[in-house]
Amino acid sequence: MRPALVVALLALLVAGCQPSPAANRDADPSRPPPAASTASLPAAVVPASFTTAPAEAPAAPHPAAPHPADDPTARALATGRLLSLRLPGGASTACTRSSDRASLAHLEARLDLGGGPPRTISLQLAHRGHSRAWRRPLAFARLATALGAHVVPSAALRRIPLGDIAALTEGQHGAPELLRELVILNDGTVEALAQAPAPGPPGPTWEPRLPSGACRTRLLAVEGAYDVDQWARWAAAPVTPLPLTGERAPLLRGYVESLVLDYLSGHILRRHLRLDDAAATLILDDNAEAFPARVTEHALDRLMHRLAAVMRFPPELRDALRKLGRAEAAALLAPGSTPSLAPAPLAQPPALPTGFEGWLLAPRTLVDLDERRLTLLSLIEARASAPAGATRLASSAPAP
User: What are the boundaries of the region Disordered (predicted)?
Assistant: First the structure.
């Protein structure tokens, strides 16, 4: 056989043994496929970034949820410098507590806000058996802020170094027992719920006592108190051009707000309301039982019965309930529990839920909150659609 013919046959044999480009890609998936001209591809499979046509406009971002940083009083409570701490046994207080759950971990503090005189606040320190007791009252305060309610004192979470607590309580009766009961974090701090003594408006009523030291507030029983029954009659009356005899708009609004907040949070164990007669302010300062893990419908019937009798809901409250959807409530009370609703960049998945430690409420509780919100909105809308001469939304502007 001629040498040239042998060389040609060997070349054909080697070429036949080489795999095709497709086979090479199957054997090594990491190898990119050869570039192809987009002109030969159907329009449906051409990436939008390769086309000359304008891309579709992204969906409008979801309305921003209310944020606790919007409350200047809460910011002051979280960042103000502690000047002093006083244990419950150190001195008697003129104001009767709204709850009988007073313990060694409930302290009175003086706070330096960077200007003006020091302010008096209350601190509830995390202690054994109650390491997360601050979550529910803090969630209640944030809900009130989101709805524009005027009956709940501002609240914030602080982390106080254990050394500061020891120094500020040194020499006080019960200080050693307090330090032994505190729950200390890995960084040496103790979580505490800081709460103003009373709500606004226009700003917080920092001093709940008269100059003489007497308490300017008094407790009212939710059931049977004359004042509470009077507010209920005002709320159930049809709106008229002139206020009812003796009607006080701030107290009327505060009564309706208290019903709404207790219903939304499932707070069925409230026994007392605090009233500041001089400021015409209703104060809900005992909110530890808000947002329980489970509430029966029968237990909520009492609150709904009172709400069903109300004919005069503030229009601002209705608007705030409309804005506080499930996503907004999750961002406020359980940040990171739901994926972001903002448009994600091209070819990137939505962010996963994060921030478990920052949750104030469990997801199931958020679902209950939203269901009650929708029920309440249905009731308010029914009142708004009633004949103008019978029932309609009442303005919350205080009487001169």
Answer: 20-41, 53-73
